[in-house]
Amino acid sequence: MLLNNNVTEFILLGLTQDPVRKKIVFAIFLIFYLGTLLGNLLIIATIKTSRALESPMYYFLFYLSFSDTCFSTSIAPRMIVDALLKKTTISFSECMIQVFTFHFFSCLEIFILILMAVDRYVAICKPLHYMTIMSHRVCGGLMALAWVGACVHSSAQIFLALSLPFCGPNVIDHYFCDLQPLLKLACTNTYVTNLLLVSNSGAICTVSFVVLMFSYVVILHSLRNHSVEGRKKALSTCISHIIVVILFFGPCIFIYTRPATTFPMDKMIAVFYTIGTPLFNPLIYTLRNAEVKNAMRMLWRKKLISDDKK
């Protein structure tokens, strides 16, 4: 329910107001977004068409790439278009939709990263029971829980956002709509709302990061009992996952676990997990994974053969 809400649209200040720098932002982030789409869609197509990538790890990687694509699309296109405009406005309803989609896909990514850690733990620590524990039915059930959990989290964010009264001003010092910059515009005491924000988003980020790092410590410790070849392969996979976890959770924890204060660097730090992580994930998972690279080569050969036949 909206209370005393006289604001129908918000003005987004973006990363910069300088006309020259806005053109640079447009060029750089257009390249980043196209790279994100190309990389993640290539992984999606490769996993979908390759029989060699049917293990649970690639099942979760498929959904991670899908989540990255949607996550980036919820932020980047508007940011890129806004860089070409003198005055960038977003309607109240569009702002709320962006809050929901941003938090939904970011939370979904968190849960998928946890499921990938669980998958690696079972594969390395319980190899004889791997296919029994991580069956198609179990993986499907875990993904369904991840979707439900993400929906619950983003619904809570929307509830908090809609409970805020906005009387003006309507200028958001950010490049997308999020609950923290909206709190600064609310014409009411936001102490309780900020506390709920930290206990929701902040707790999810911090607890998930601790759980993930602890799980990888356990996994890496258990590798001492494996053969040199098996240890090397498992270590390569785990290091890829750890890099992704640090890149994503580091900025998130910085933004969402502190009181309602903002710093000039917040917008640039937000770029790391809104634009950077979806771009780097495909590079990390392909460059360090021989199976994915081989499957991509096979997909490319099939395309060349089909083109030759035409």
From TrEMBL:
Main location: membrane
GO molecular function terms noted in the UniProt entry: G protein-coupled receptor activity; olfactory receptor activity
Membrane topology: Multi-pass membrane protein
UniProt KW Repressor keyword: no
UniProt keyword terms in alphabetical order: Cell membrane, G-protein coupled receptor, Membrane, Olfaction, Receptor, Sensory transduction, Transducer, Transmembrane, Transmembrane helix
Entries under InterPro entries matching the protein: GPCR_Rhodpsn, GPCR_Rhodpsn_7TM, Olfact_rcpt, Olfactory_Receptors
Presence of keyword Transmembrane: yes
Domain of life: Eukaryota
Gene3D superfamilies associated with the record: Rhodopsin 7-helix transmembrane proteins
Residue ranges of domain G-protein coupled receptors family 1 profile in the record: 39-285
Sequence intervals crossing the membrane: 24-45, 57-76, 96-118, 138-160, 201-223, 235-256, 268-287
GO CC, alphabetical: plasma membrane
Subcellular location: Cell membrane
Family statement: Belongs to the G-protein coupled receptor 1 family.
Function comment: Putative odorant or sperm cell receptor.
Name the record gives this protein: Olfactory receptor
Species this protein is from: Vicugna pacos (Alpaca)
Gene that encodes it: LOC102539530
